[in-house]
Write a sequence for this structure.
């Protein structure tokens, strides 16, 4: 095979992966159940509480509108397994940010995939493609 043919094959392969990945399906999963699992197995330490928009108000907002956008390898994994994993990554980032600022909660959380805000009092959105799963959240760092 010539160098030109190899390059063409690589280009077609890469564009094929991109087009397959573009066909993400949006999934909704129970937020509190996922948080409880993450705390139970030690992924989250429980010192920071997480509240979807519309479920908790009050406290002093220390920083408003923080965004986390996490991705994980979703190849060969169910949407639920991949999405649970990537949600944990997003929540760990929020937990670390909240603790570093002296806060104990993240409130007003909304799904924020591709900068499109989706509010729910029970579920979070997760995009799952063939190879990648992603969760984007926006929320406020709060001290109660």
């Amino acid at each position: 095979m010539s160098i030109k043919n190899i390059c063409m094959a690589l280009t077609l392969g890469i564009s094929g992966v991109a087009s397959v990945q573009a066909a993400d399906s949006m999934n909704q999963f129970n937020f509190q159940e996922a948080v409880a699992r993450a705390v139970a197995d030690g992924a989250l330490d429980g010192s920071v509480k997480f509240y979807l928009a519309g479920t908790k108000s009050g406290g002093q907002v220390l920083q408003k509108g923080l965004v986390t956008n996490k991705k994980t390898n979703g190849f060969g994994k169910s949407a639920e397994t991949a999405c649970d994993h990537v949600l944990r990554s997003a929540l760990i980032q929020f937990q670390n940010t909240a603790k570093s600022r002296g806060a104990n909660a993240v409130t007003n959380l909304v799904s924020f995939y591709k900068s499109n805000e989706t509010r729910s009092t029970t579920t979070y959105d997760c995009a799952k493609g063939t190879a990648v799963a992603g969760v984007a959240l926006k929320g406020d760092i709060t001290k109660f």
User: Anything to note?
Assistant: The mean pLDDT is 89. Helices lie at 3-21, 31-40, 79-100.
